[in-house]
Amino acid sequence: MEGYRRGGQTAITHLRTILRVIAVALAVLLVVGIGYQQLGNLVDAHHFPEPGRLVDAGGHRLKINCTGSGSPTVVLESGWGDVLVEWQAVQPQISTFTRVCSYDRAGYGESDAGPLPRTSLQIARELHALLQNAGEHPPFILVGHSFGGYNVRVFHGQYPNEVVGLVLVDATQEDQYQLLPSAWKQLFANELSRRRSQAKWMPLQISLGIARLRFGKQLGPYGYLILRSNYIKARASELQEIQTSAEEARAAGTCGNKPLIVLTGVQQDESLKNGLSPEAFASFQHTWIETLQPRLAQLSTRGKQVVLSDVGHDIPGQDPTAVVSAVREIYAQAGQGTP
Questions:
Q1: Lower Cβ count inside 10 Å, N or C end of the chain?
Q2: How many helices (H) and strands (E) does the chain have?
Q3: CATH code of the domain in which 167 resides
Q4: Contact at 8 Å (CB) between 120 and 154?
C-alpha cells in the first residue's frame, strides 16, 4: 500500500514537472513570437520606410506624404486594403507639375487606429482635418481608386468649394450591389464573412509573429504595413460598412460641371474570373463597363469615361501613366494651363 502511494506521488510529481516544462516552453514561444513580430517590423521599416509624416486628424494621427509644388493640389485616395505606397508609380510623375498628397486611412499602414465604424463619411471628414492640419490648402483635385471613389465623392459633397475636379479610377458605383450578377453577390458575401472572421483571429496571429511567418514573404517588402492588428480591423470595418458608404456617396450628389474622368479597366483579376462561370463573368464585365462606370461619368456634365483595354482593376500599379494623364487633363481643365 505504501509503495502504491509513493508510486502515485511520483507520477503526480512527474506530471507537475511536465506541465511546468510545457508552461515554460509556451512562455518562451510567446516571447520569441512577439519579439519576432516586433523586430521584423522594425527591420522592414528601416529597409523599406513608408514616406511621409504623422499628422493629427481629429484625435488620432494619419500618415500623409506630400511632394511637389503648385496648385491645385492632387489628393490620392487608395482603394480598399491599399496603403499609400499603392501610388509609388503615380505620385512622382504628378509631382513634376503640381503638389500631390497620398495618405494612409486610419488603421492603415503607420496611421493610428480611428473610430469605428469606418464609413466614407467618417473617412472624408478625417481626410479634411488631415489636410488642414498638414497645411495643405485647397483647391484640390481628388483621385479615388476602387472604394476610394466613394470617399472622394463624399469629400466633394461635404466640401464642394474646395474641389475643382475628380478622377475615378475603376471606382465602385453604388448600384453595383443590385445590378451585378447574383454569382458576384455571393462572392461578395463570402469575402465579407471571411474578413469578419479574420478581424477576430488574425490580430492574435499577428501579435505572436505567426502571420509574419506564414505570409511575410508573399506580401513583399511593404508587408509589414499590413501585418498590423489595426489594419485588419479597419479593413474589415470598411467592407462591413461598404453599402452604407455607397449610400453616402449617392447622397453626396453630382459634381455639377466640374471636370471628371472615369478610368475603367477591362481585364479583371484572376480571382474574379476563377470565381464566376463564363456566363456570370461576361455579365459582370458588361454591367461594370457599359452601365456602372458610365453612371460615374454622368455625375458631371463634363464627365467622360476612358476604357483601358489592357489593364485590370489595379490601374495605379498596372498603368500609372493613365492615371497621370487623367490628372494632367483635369489640371488643364481646372484653369491652370497644360503642364
A1: N
A2: 14, 8
A3: 3.40.50.1820
A4: yes
